[in-house]
Amino acid sequence: MAAAGAAVLPAMSSCSPGGIVGEASLSNVKDSYSADLLVVGGGPAGVCAAVAAARKGIKVMLIDNGNCLGGMGTKGLVGPFMTCYDAKGENMIIRGLFEEIVDRLIAEGGAIHPSKIRHTTEFTAWITEGHDHVTPFDPEILKKVYDRICAEAGVKVLFHASFVNPIMKGRRICGAVLLTPSGLESVRAKMVIDATGDGTVAYRAGAPCVFGDPESGRVQPASLFFRINNVDTDRLIADVVPHLPEFRRVNGVSYRCLHWRVAEAEAAGEWDLARKSVNIWRSVEKDQWVINCTRIHGVDATDAENLTAAEIEGRRQVEELMHFFHKYVPGCEKATLMGTGSTMGIRESRHVHGDFVLPVQDLIDGVIPDDNILLSANSIDVHGAMGGPAGGLYMPIQKDMYGIPYRCLLPKDVDGLLLAGRCISADSAAAGAIRVMPPAMALGQAAGIAAALCLTGGTTPDALDYADLRKSLLEQKVYLG
């Protein structure tokens, strides 16, 4: 833990402009690909951006540095999908491609529809606030669904392709240099969408950004998710349910699922994690559970050495947790580790700034802007916000829902670029609400549609007519109220 935790939140050096490639610097780069739209990052936002744009009839290329689509939901084993309903739990408000993907998962036996999942059950780690109507899913089936939906839309997908630098003409981005197993290769594109999560494209193209929360000097801690099976689920549930009246939050620290077992392990000197309880979510199969409990502070997801130390520490914590399950948790004596995420679960890194930075108060107040592109009701959830090892900020919204403005997808100082996912222009606390996968998918769908409209209509993202964008969003079954 010391190795990862010693690397405290970097100063603004993490957000100084990276290298920018012009035509004169491409002599040793193979000119391999061209597309109308290049989407960088194949996570939930990137997949939805690529599919939404391709369905509008443009040529789309989607690149990812891994070997599958899905990002945190597949490589990171993050689950379930958080709520897609309004704050009252009455209406599904994140729809569009997210709903289509869920329906495809269900058809293949890889998900349970959110309408069937209520709060304070084993599917929500017995959490109440903000956890009504989550969606359990199988990450292996999700990989197949993403492959198929991209293929059907005609998206060109390239794995094992790491973004190196943007190709720029003045302040306009017109492609990217990639590092692939073949060497350095270029992609020429008329527009680019940054769906990297870390805002890597925007940052290296010279857009202004900040790292974490500049006011507190902190970034949300990271977690390595893992999955277990061979659990006697009935016995586990029987141990938890009598303790539900004891669930509480004290000074930002949650005492929820299995906190009584954690206390036993602490007393025996067999618990050193920065948690007082265990977030354990039942998955689609009855004996399978997703564990969100590891915690590594001060992780800079843009720094390879720091991220390496965090990954190693995450696996150490998983080993400790498996010992905990085997020794202390009824029903888990014979639990088997199915696997750890092949990448760390990152909650926060860079926030790219645009002309409008979404303030958290707009979410709390339920503001629905004139240029609204999606509706959401995810609570403000900022892990580590209080500075302690386990303290966080959790704030339910005051209205049924809030909207996200299109302006948040437009970075400053770079033309031809749109943002999608958790790197959009928002303050740290606001990003703590919309960083989860359902709103990230909706942000991606909006960015993809916007890019397609710009390319087919001969306009720029900042000049796009919102009426046209809204019409296309509705045509693709996005719910806007």
CATH class of the domain at 12-117 and 136-214 and 348-373 and 406-475: Alpha Beta
Rounded to the nearest angstrom, the distance between the terminal CA atoms is: 46 Å
Helix content: 25-40%
From the alpha carbons, calculate the radius of gyration and give it in angstroms: 21 Å
Shape: globular
CATH topology of the domain at 12-117 and 136-214 and 348-373 and 406-475: FAD/NAD(P)-binding domain
- Going by CATH, the homologous superfamily of the domain at 12-117 and 136-214 and 348-373 and 406-475 would be FAD/NAD(P)-binding domain
CATH architecture designation of the domain at 12-117 and 136-214 and 348-373 and 406-475: 3-Layer(bba) Sandwich
Model regions low in confidence, pLDDT < 50 over at least 5 residues = 1-18
Report the major sheet.
7 strands, mixed
% residues in beta strands: 15-25%
Mean pLDDT metric: 93
Structural class: alpha+beta
- The number of helical runs is 12
- Please count the beta strands (DSSP E, at least 2 residues each): 19
Question: How is the topology of this model organized?
Answer:
Blueprint: H1 2-5, E1 30-40, H2 44-54, E2 60-63, H3 96-107, H4 139-153, E3 156-158, E4 162-169, E5 172-180, E6 183-194, H5 200-205, E7 209-211, E8 226-229, H6 233-240, E9 248-250, E10 253-255, H7 259-267, E11 279-282, E12 289-292, H8 304-328, E13 336-340, E14 350-352, H9 360-364, E15 372-376, E16 380-383, E17 392-395, E18 402-405, E19 417-419, H10 428-434, H11 437-457, H12 466-475
